[in-house]
Amino acid sequence: MRKKRKKRVLVLMHEDLVPPDDIVGRPDAEVLEYKAEYDVITGLRELGHEVQPLGLYDDLTPLRGAIQDFKPHIVFNLLEEFRGEPMLDQNVVSYLELVQMLYTGCNPRGLMIARDKALSKMILHHHRIRVPRFAVVSGGRKLKRKPARLTYPLIVKSQIDDSSFGIAEASLVNNDEKLAERIEFMQANVGTDLILEQYVDGRELYVGVMGNSRLQVLPVWELEMQRLRSDAPKIATRRVKWNLKFQKRRGVKLSPARDLPPELERLLVKTTKRLYRLLQLSGYARVDFRLDAEGRPYFLEANPNPDIGYGEEFAEAAEAAGIDYEPLLDRILAIGLRKR
Length: 340
Prior knowledge:
Number of strands: 13
Structural class: alpha+beta
Largest sheet: 6 strands, antiparallel
Number of domains: 3
CATH class of the largest domain: Alpha Beta
Strand content: 15-25%
Distance between the termini: 25 Å
CATH superfamily of the largest domain: ATP-grasp fold, B domain
Radius of gyration: 20 Å
Order of helices and strands: EHHEHEHHHEEEHEEEEHHEHEEHH
Helix content: 25-40%
Shape: globular
């Protein structure tokens, strides 16, 4: 059997998330910040690749120097923003394209389309993929009443931020007064355009997918919240996703979706592949759906380059499909190396 050639891999990340070589004895809260970066670097080294981490913030000079000096075969891209702006990560990937440097994950166009929640929904609605009704509130525009085409409850989100940034229980509003309050709060504290989205009250499902032209869809995963207050909305708030103490207290867990009808699973697989291509994604992504009372899936958002830390939902879903963590990283490298 032909032995795999080991690669020089430049792992790209935010400068504040470059992990130490050893995390033994470090506080859990600290490790959680750079866990995915640490897991990827460690996993690639376990595979025998020569790995160099590189942190960026607002200057591409270190990236140019690392490409010239280290001469990587590929860049493993874990960068999610540039100069503090989520929408600018696509420009770093565009730079890699310009210098003909291979990279993992999504291409610039797919990053731009998927990052814009309104644009991605418009594209998919045009192609008859079910999305919640929505409206955009741009800039500092004030809104005293909901748009006529929408009905309460509505959820107020940033149009471009991910990882549930800015989402709390107060994001779900049921009247004009609360809507105006939440819009004012988000404009003051988040500062992006906003999207008002019809709330779909049902199960929240995540579907992982990887590939460029040939796609592999991973088993469907589900976000469960077992011990929420009776009056608490079942939404993936910032605390639900990132606060370990809250997750433990409220029984938040991510696990394989149970008791899904076979026809629904087939529909999710088919829809995921179709929208992945319509949104021009590549590399790997996680697609978020909600089921309504009739069991129909609604597209919420696509997340290119999702968290692939060990034990996170993408890696867990891959393991359920028979792909252990290090082979998953190798698979993602191979997809990136096949781009050209």
